[in-house]
Amino acid sequence: MATALQFPANVSTLNNYNDLYPDWTQREVSTGTTIMAVEFDGGVVIGADSRTTTGAYIANRVTDKLTPIHDRIFCCRSGSAADTQAIADAVTYQLGFHSIELDEAPLIQTAASLFRDMCYRYREELMAGIIVAGWDKRRGGQVYTVPVGGMMTRQPVSVGGSGSSYIYGYVDSNYKTGMTKEECLKFTAEALTLAMERDGSSGGVVRLAVISEQGVERQVILGNQLPKFSTV
Amino acid sequence: MALSCVLEPALSGFNFENSTRNIVLENGSEEGKIKAPKPMKTGTTIAGVVYKDGVVLGADTRATSDEVVADKMCAKIHYIAPNIYCCGAGTAADTEKTTEILSSNLTIFSMNSGRNPRVVMAVNILQDMLFRYRGMIGAHLILGGVDCTGSHLYTVGPYGSMDKVPYLAMGSGNLPAMGILEDRFKANMDLEEAKSLVSDAIHAGIMSDLGSGNNIDLCVITKEGVDYIRPHKESPFNYKRQAKYKYKPGTTPVLTKTVTQVELELLDETVQMMETAGSS
């Protein structure tokens, strides 16, 4: 599962200003992030941190990286902020059009395929790692991951972004099949907190969302309310 | 998707026409490398705050060209629509032209549809354009306005990324300005509090950043209208010229004078009658 580490995007040398101007005015805005999605019976739980960085400066400390694509389909964005916002806008349009043509709610697999098509076709120009998750009538809650490069695969639990490297062990050892919605929420919140503790490019608040047949419920866990782990 | 009533049609796909040319120029040929020209930055502090009745935008007024101040009274708060203004940081020409294009497109939209433009429309058009140019347009913009859906403050980066936030600072002086904003921002402030907060934030940027300076401009946008205060605060260091620099005629002595006649030969003469209102 390839994840996007934080490294400079393909910036043209025409934008190389001299040393009088600080680093963060020259760098592209990156979401350098931690995102996560978990399936449960009846829906999915998705979560993300809220930090957007430009080099070493935090451009936005309350970013919302959980972007609605359709009524019951969300995507979690990591990588270049501009690229992922543009891709999400394009896919939202395409999926909305498709849904109107079909006269029914689109499938999560369709949304994930649209992301994959765009990310693979323009793989040289884009830096985007996206997790697509939602609920549909045919297959219930589903999580599809579309990492940098444009692969697409369905997974019961998926993590992404620069902070994900620090929580693979935690996720692999703590994930159990058949978790309830509350267990999934707690699992996601704890995993994100651990990643935010260790990854400099992740931080801020934890944004969570539960997508099910009933709709979407969103919550925010502020910094002082995050779960506490022992500090050695 | 292209808006049918907007002047500039959206091109499909990504446009990388010039990237090969740029790489070839940078890497050079046998004759030598061609260095890319350095664009002029405004080295700026701009800030915006959403308050109870609308949005307050602020900017300094210094435009720099490397170490020299090119313009002491530069206007960085650009008009987009009667209810939307935009502060621009980054390359001066890029912010100027981008905001002009945006303003034209929104005016055409207004005339075609009979509606006032919404801030989110302006943001979407900017995002589309800046993303298409892949960061080549060095425009870091703060857009603020009040429309039928409320008061909004957005930032758009040169690569096409967008953030919607209640308070914001951009430009080379944004670190000190952000410090002031983070310390004193409260939701639903009243007008005087908001104006003094933005003014202090710009002032912090001016004091702590070499690229920002001179006066502070403010722009207050509410449902009722716009109050463009230019300048809100003048720099106490305005330099007045100490003496006159005009030279009286006769200051330079004339040493010699030579007159040469130029021989001209009249070759051809034609007379063309002009159609004027009197003659018809």
TrEMBL record, chain A:
Molecular-function GO term, any one: threonine-type endopeptidase activity
One GO cellular component, as annotated: nucleus
Reaction catalyzed: Cleavage of peptide bonds with very broad specificity
Localization annotation: Cytoplasm; Nucleus
Pfam families for the chain: Proteasome
BP GO terms, sorted: immune system process; proteolysis involved in protein catabolic process
Keyword field contains Transmembrane: no
Keywords: Cytoplasm, Hydrolase, Immunity, Nucleus, Protease, Proteasome, Threonine protease, Zymogen
Assembly information from the UniProt record: The 26S proteasome consists of a 20S proteasome core and two 19S regulatory subunits. The 20S proteasome core is composed of 28 subunits that are arranged in four stacked rings, resulting in a barrel-shaped structure. The two end rings are each formed by seven alpha subunits, and the two central rings are each formed by seven beta subunits. The catalytic chamber with the active sites is on the inside of the barrel. Component of the immunoproteasome, where it displaces the equivalent housekeeping subunit PSMB6.
Function: The proteasome is a multicatalytic proteinase complex which is characterized by its ability to cleave peptides with Arg, Phe, Tyr, Leu, and Glu adjacent to the leaving group at neutral or slightly basic pH. The proteasome has an ATP-dependent proteolytic activity. This subunit is involved in antigen processing to generate class I binding peptides.
Record-stated family: Belongs to the peptidase T1B family.
PANTHER family, alphabetized: METALLOPROTEASE TLDD, PROTEASOME SUBUNIT BETA
Name of the protein described by the UniProt record: Proteasome subunit beta
Species annotation: Cirrhinus molitorella
UniProtKB/TrEMBL annotation, chain B:
Keywords per UniProt: Cytoplasm, Hydrolase, Nucleus, Protease, Proteasome, Threonine protease
Main location: cytoplasm
Superkingdom of origin: Eukaryota
Database matches in Pfam families: Pr_beta_C, Proteasome
Cited Gene3D superfamilies: Glutamine Phosphoribosylpyrophosphate, subunit 1, domain 1
Compartments (UniProt record): Cytoplasm; Nucleus
Residue ranges occupied by any Proteasome beta subunit C-terminal domain in the UniProt entry: 240-271
SUPFAM superfamilies named in the record: N-terminal nucleophile aminohydrolases (Ntn hydrolases) (SSF56235)
The reaction(s) this protein catalyses: Cleavage of peptide bonds with very broad specificity
Subunit structure: Component of the proteasome complex.
Role summary: The proteasome is a multicatalytic proteinase complex which is characterized by its ability to cleave peptides with Arg, Phe, Tyr, Leu, and Glu adjacent to the leaving group at neutral or slightly basic pH. The proteasome has an ATP-dependent proteolytic activity. This subunit is involved in antigen processing to generate class I binding peptides.
Family in the record: Belongs to the peptidase T1B family.
Stated name of the protein: Proteasome subunit beta
Organism per entry: Cirrhinus molitorella (mud carp)
